Amino acid sequence: MQYTKYTDPTELFKIIVKTDLKVIIDNQKLISIAQEVLEKDKPYCKLLKIAIDNDVYKELLKPINENSKTKILHIEKAIKILTEECFIIKEKAIWAVGWLASIIYPIEWFSLINKSNPKEEKENIWNLPNLINSKPSNDAPVHKPQTTTTITTKQDIYSLDNVKSNEILDNKDWTLEEIDLEMIYCPAGNFMMGSLDDEIGNNRKEEILHKVIISKAFRIGKYPVTQKQYQAIMGCNPSFFEGSNNPVESVSWEDAKKFCKILNSKYKASIPQGYEFALPTEAQWEYACRAGTTTALNNGSNLSSESGYCKNLDEIAWYIYNTNQSTHPVGKKKPNKWGIYDFHGNVWEWCSDFYGDYPSYTVTDPTGPNYGELRVFRGGCFRSYPGSCRSGYRFFLCPNDTSNDVGFRVALVPTE
């Protein structure tokens, strides 16, 4: 491939990524792509490696859902990291930042990069032939040690600083085609589990805010398990409210575990190597539910009332004020930012953990207490008031008990 003809970076980026990858970047994979596209041009692969190793892409990931002005500030900060901390000349720093930014969000980031350039700079910094033919800087770059950022503020609650490239899955959703079980990719990272003190409905004793590190990526069901899927695996449908695309309910924790066990046995050849179906841990459930949000609801909103009608909840959940006291087909309300539906309302969802008190310190991949009598379920149901549908709300039941408002969704998790 002759890359020298691609003076328009958006054309080069199409070749680099082929699709719009709004995803976390695997450092080693990114370097591999860079080498392939740039035909192993060592100076420029080295430049990109410096940018990646110094966490420039993480700076660019922070404001994806914010306005253009905020994005530009992060672009400028990313360029500053390379110029001031790594001693990269500004022209090449802009090139590297633009390359990484365009992988995260190709077209929009490219226009923002142009806006962030000083007006007096008339030279087209995106002229790739000129850049590639220029001599790389002789200044020795300074490599920062890889560190983990401690979360200290509300704005820092969601972070990807703990991600390691060798722990990132091939960042794609996956479907068990045999029963149309769609699984959504959830990247490794960390978040604040529990509820803020000023959140409406917060039970401070049971929802202590604490930092949780999710060290390995996993996948979780796009929807709760439906009656059709449950019937296909278990050979029966225990649900009180019948509907093939309604969530299965009236299932115990033990029933849900058995469902996962049969999935793993029956479809062993189809399941990605090194992974298995399981109930999500309480931490995985809340991490996937929040999808980066810090508010009571995963659409970025808070409750207007703990027990009254709540417009903010209405768009994402089936709850007491909009259900006519029954379950509804999955996927009819708005999803969260990761494209996952029905975390709030419709049916409660079993988690794998025993119920117990939260710690007040940072934990990694928590699985709950080692023993207990009650199992956790989350999310609220069709007969719940708003306060019980919050991302941080938790409740419990005996593992062999059933209720026509309790179902589950499955996770695809690493076996080690």
- List the strand order in the largest sheet: 1-2-5-12-6
Strand content: 5-15%
Count of helix runs? 12
**Overall helicity:** 25-40%
List the helices and strands in order.
HHHHHHHHEEEEEHHEHHEEEEEE
Q: What is the count of structural domains?
A: 2
| Low-pLDDT runs | 1-25, 106-169
Structural class: alpha+beta
The largest sheet is: 5 strands, antiparallel
Q: What is the 3D form? A: globular
What is the CATH first-level class name of the largest domain? Answer: Alpha Beta
Mean pLDDT: 77
CA radius of gyration = 24 Å
Report how far the terminal alpha carbons are from each other: 41 Å
What is the strand tally?
A: 12
CATH homologous superfamily of the largest domain, by name? paralog of FGE (formylglycine-generating enzyme)
Structure characteristics:
416 residues; 12 strands; 4-stranded mixed sheet; 5-stranded antiparallel sheet; paralog of FGE (formylglycine-generating enzyme); alpha+beta; 12 helices
Short account of what is shown:
The protein has 416 residues and is of the alpha+beta class.
Describe this structure in words.
There is one protein chain. With 416 residues, the chain is an alpha+beta fold. It folds into two domains: 131 residues, no CATH class; 261 residues, paralog of FGE (formylglycine-generating enzyme) (Alpha-Beta Complex), CATH 3.90.1580.10. 30% of the residues lie in helices and 12% in strands. It is built from twelve helices and twelve strands. The strands form three sheets. It has a five-stranded antiparallel beta sheet. The protein has a four-stranded mixed beta sheet with strand order 10-9-7-11. A hairpin with a 4-residue loop joins strand 1 and strand 2. The longest helix has 18 residues. The two termini are 41 Å apart.
